Structure formats: structure tokens, C-alpha cells
Amino acid sequence: MKILRRLSRRVRVKDDRRATPPAPVETAPAQAMRRVRIENRSNLAERRRSRLSVIGLVLSVGFVISAGRAVEIAVFNGEADARNVASAAELAPVRRASILDRDGEILAATLDFHSVYADPLYVWDAEEVAQQLATVLPDLDVERLTRRLSSNSRYVPIADGLSPRVRQAIHLLGLPGVNFRVEPGRIYPKQRVAAHLVGYVDGQMEGVAGAERAFEAELAEGGRPVSLSIDLTAQYRVESILRERMAAHQAAAASAVLMRVGTGEIIAMASLPDYDPNRFAEATAPSSDVDPLFNQAVQGVYELGSVFKPLSLAAGLEAGSVHMDDVYDATTPVRIGGHAIHDYRGENRPLTAREMVLYSSNIASARMADTIGADDLTGFYADLRLFEAPPVELLEAAGPSLPRRWGRIQTMTASYGHGFQVSPLALAAAYSALANGGVYTPPTLRPVAPGETVAGVPVMSSSVAAQVLGVMREFVARSQTGSADVEGLAVAGKTGTAERVVGGQYVEGSTFNTFVAVFPFDDPQYVLTVSMDRPQPTAETHGFSTAGWTAMPAAGEIIRALAGVLDIDRHDADPEAQVSVVAELFAPRPRIVAPSEEPVALEDAAFEDPQ
User: Residues 227, 229, 255, 306: which is the catalytic one?
Assistant: First the structure.
């Protein structure tokens, strides 16, 4: 069959050639063309295969690289991501936490503020841009901004702290090269209220003073708000009354501290003159020597005068060297070390230890201190933390100014508050121990929860504390003005008037007045100190400018205003509420008129009294 097929194929080829002889042409033969076409198609396929190979190779390499990168990401990128997150956290600004009062009222908070700046590279006409901005920002210095916009700088700050309305007005001007930034800023919605307690921050949002500085670590972390112990309503009333009384007496400065007995909580603290923390850089002093940013109650240390007489009495009673009926000769001045200690409007007779407080006798106090001795008196003061900065959270709390040596004359003068200087806050904390049954509790800006027990340090017996409070109650009840006695609250207190020390010298006629109050007397809950720097006499005070006519009435007015705020039940004081000695103090006797207290400086004397 194969042979037949071959024979038949050959026959057909011959027949075809005979029937159609090839025509003469000038081109290449058809078979040659066929061979050329076959060769061209073969080359094209070859090239296509080469291209596909290259593409395949490239894709293979790409797949290999991608696979390698995937492995790298899977294995190593977790650590890199962690580093990136940490870096982002470090760069991202932390929002400073808020400060609240004990009832949750906002005292300080962080808000977003808009600032406007310009890039001079994109500013077409510097003068026109400055003039346009001045239509929205009237305080803008057009000439100065024009010069800056004409500089080679790429960043020119224009204004910050913009309200949304002002920002929108600038935006609508459509000025090329003028842009906005959003930055966190600190605001104080209560403005001047509790300014010295709350404090303020600098441009880097770091605390500079007050609670902003004291609780910097907590606030900067951006966590939960920090609550303070102060009561905003009580704070406002204390400040308002103190401001009025300070103006009435034309005092250069004033302060007040209200502490809760037993917990040490500072319920209110005022310092005048004050300032607005939102504009602390603009604070100006009403007089050349008073800085509004200075906290009079904490940073200032002063000779506080006769408010120390009840404390020195407590020191003698606690040491056992003094009894309430001990008599000290106040007939003539005490002369010691070339100086003389005398009384203002003295009784010129022997006085008991109790009468020493009632008549505020420097002579009797000095003789009593001589009996107590330097060790017992200074040791007692030290137990009351009067020889150190008050242990409060405020970092600006100042320590006392003490004499270089402590001899006999320093012991005598210290018994009536002369010769060393302490802050009003330190005095308030010392009296809080007296009101707390003899237990010292450190002052604090932290609120104490109801029922929470605060550990204290016993510094005197409760009997001694009760006896001294009884004398202080009698001092207020029988005072000449009676201005600090509040019906139903039975206030106990003591005045102190001291000449100011400037450059190591006493300045005659320049006084620092203080009144310290404990109320209610039969159930002590609060201690209040009120101080005035250089008050002036008025017609209302009959020409006097001492503590009994200035600080004492101010304290009485404050206590009346606080009675409802502090939720204190008014009632008639029970003399038996302390100890039996208190009942004796209230036995019927002729009314004692406590004289207005005057500062008494040491006078030169020719000899030393051996007594």
C-alpha cells in the first residue's frame, strides 16, 4: 500500500507539471520565498521565546525578592514597629490633666488653641498681608510684621491663643502663605480665685508654681485629674472679704489660711495682691515691694508677735514648769542683755499665766519663758514643725528665719513671737495641733475622704490643749471689740501685732498683724489665720491699726460668711466640753477689757535683770 501511494503521488506531480508549466518570473522562486517565510517565522518565534524567558526571569527574581521581604517583615518588623510606636509616643504631645477642687469644679484644664503663622516664601505682598491681618488682629504691629514677612525666613509667628471665631476670620481673608497650627494650652476658668494655690505653667506646659508645680508628675502624665482639698465656695468668700478689708485698711498685702482640724486639709488659702494665671506674665505690683506672684501665706515668713503666747503657755504646761495660776511680775520691764522688754498699756502688776494671754503681756511672757527654759520652749516649737518649712505639697513653702544663736534673750522674745520668723501656714498648722487635742497633722492639699483616718504626731496632752483653748476662748469673748465672736460658734483666738523687720532692723510704725481663730471652741473643726501687712488706721478703728482692729474683725467676718458653707451647726458652747478647767474660766467675774495690742521692740537698757 505504501508503494502504491508513492507511485500515485509521483504520477500526480508529473501530471500537474505538464498541465501548468511554470511561468517565467524575475523574482525568486516560490519555494525560495516559502523557505524565507519559514525562516522569518522561525526567527520571530525565537525572539518571542527569548522575551518570554526574560520576562519570566524578571518575574521570578521579583517573586524571590518579594518572598524575602515578606520573611524579613514577618521576622524582624515586630521590633521595628515597637520602636516606631515608642518614637511616635515620645514626639506626640501629652495633654496635661485637669486640676479640680474637692467637689469637682475645674480649676485648670487643657484646651486646643489656634496659632497663625506665615511662610514669607509664599507671601506675595508683605505690606498688604500685614494690613489685612491687622483688620482682625488690632494689636498687631503692622510695620514690624511687614519687615519680618519680607525676610528670608520660612517661619514667622503672628499670633497665638486664637479663638475659633478669630481663626475663621483670618481664614476668610484668603491670604497666601498664612497658615494655622493647633497647640494645647492651659486655661484657668476661675481666673484669680485660688490663683496662688493652683499656680500656672510655662510655655512648655510645665508647672511653675502652686499645684501645677507640686503635682507636676501626675499632671504631665495626662492621666486622671488631680483634686485639691480646697472648697471653691469657701475660697471665694475668704478672698472677697479679705480683699474688702485689705482695701479698707489700705494694707500693702494680706493672707488667710483655713485648715480643717484632724485632717490637715487646706480648705481655703488666700494671698493678696493676686493675679490671673491666664495672664501671669502681665501681673503688676500695686506697690514697689509687693509681688503679686508671691504667696504671702506660704512663701512669706514674718515675726507674728503675740499669737505665740498661747503656744508658749502650752509649752510650759506640757513641760510641767508652768501652772495656770503661776504669777509673774509685770510691774516693771524686764532688762536683759542691754535691752528692755516692756508692755504697751500694761497692767503694771503681777499677772497669772492665764492673765498673761488675756492681757497680752510681753513682760509676763518673757518671765514665764525664762522659767520654761530654752530647751523645753524650742523643743516644743520644733515638735510643732515651726523650725522647718511646713510639710505641705507646695514646693515654694518657705522655712523659718531663726537667730544664729539661741540664748536667754532669744528664749524670752520667742515666747511672744519676736526674734524669729515663720509663715502664716506654719502658724495655722501649729494651732491645728492645739485644736486637735495635741496631735499635729501635716497640712495638705489632698482631699481626705469622709471617715478616713489621718495619722498624726502627739505633741502635747489633750488636757494642756484644752486649757490653752479655754484661755483663747476667754480672750475673744472678753475682747474690747468682740468683733471675732460669732454667735453660736464660740470662737477661740489670739491677736498678734509685730513691727516689720527690714534689713535686720525694726521699722517703727510699719506692722504685720495677725489673728488666729479656732472654731467652734467646744468642738474644734477649723483653724483660721488672717494676716495684714502694714494696715493703716482709719476713723472706723479710732486711729488704731493693730491686729485687734484690723485682722481680728476681718476674721470674724470671714467666719460668719463660712458658717453656712462649712455646714457647722450653731449652738451655745458648753464650757464643760473640754475639761473641768474650762468651767472655771467661765465662772462669773468682772469683765476684762483686753487692750489693743501694740508692737513692742526691745529697748536699750543699762543693766541686766538677774531674775
Answer: 306
